[in-house]
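DM from R.C. (forwarded with permission)

"hey, sorry to bug you on a friday — could you get me a structure for this? deadline for the figure draft is monday and I only need the backbone to look sensible"
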Amino acid sequence: MIERFRAGVLAAALTLLLTGCSAVMVPVSPADSSGLGRETVRVGIAYDSAGRGDKSFNDAAAAGIDRAKQELLIEASEAKTQAETDEARAEALRGLAAGGSNPVIAVGFLYATAVGTVAEEFPGTLFAIIDDDSVTADNVVSLLFSEEQGSYLVGVAAALATRKDRVAFVGGVDVALIHKFEAGYVAGVHSVDPGIRVDVRYLTRPPDFGGFSAPAKGKAAAARLIAGGADVVYAAAGGSGSGVFQAVAAGRKAWAIGVDSDQYATADEAVRSRILTSMLKRVDNGVFQEIQAFVKGDRAGGKKRYDLKVDGVGYATSNQQLGPYQSGMEKARYRILSGAVRVPVS
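My reply, with the result:
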């Protein structure tokens, strides 16, 4: 009897040793019969129509997935919408969930309706949605970011860098989420000098969400703003930002500020030197940390906030020409962290 018991323990130990090299082992108690402790975690991620390669929002989310593959040994399936409709988005999520992905991550607030629908169809799957908290279900978690805080910091940089006391903001689509970027930017500019003028342009308004993927519109809007006197242009416009960079580079004496990821690092050589900094929205951290939490057994819905305190937002320092303005940006960061400054969201 004792020998059989020892043999059983040895066999179990060998099984764990052999499988631990190729699979993520989620701790479960002996009473847990779900089988999760013996499975590889398979994550699904649904991008918007731009997908990987937008050098902005989607690529930031993709970076989180890539990190999770390497560090957490997860498997991943990726999808993107084939049309800008709620049904197309639901089909993307449905395909991932039906294929065994859990959790399923939806990249962007436009997925809200689709997440609400598909989460009901797959109650045993956890859905995470970035930038939306309108869906309240036990199996839906909202990943939210304090974009206004990061935008405040690059607003400080814009105010310190302008030579004309006139800067600009280009928003992709005129919606509440992008208003947060605008509000933080304007507040940051005016914290340095209330007399600096901030010109604002949006590329489209709902129901047209194409402003996030219209570089030609971004270029035309930025060109008009520069012609009007602005010499720093902050683009919170997704893929349309590349057009803004082109207009700024053509102006030569103007600066561009990117968004979401370090766009200096990925921009074409022809425009790179004119990207002063970027507001970093650490979607990569949010995606990675949500997957990590799932692996550790956190399957609950709710809301998770990523702000300056948890490195959820920040700014890029790749362009050395930002150097003269960093001291002012860091002072602003400490004021926000200390609570001395509360950045507006609208």
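R.C.: lifesaver. The chain has two domains: 37-145+284-309, 147-281+316-338.
me: no worries. The mean pLDDT is 89.
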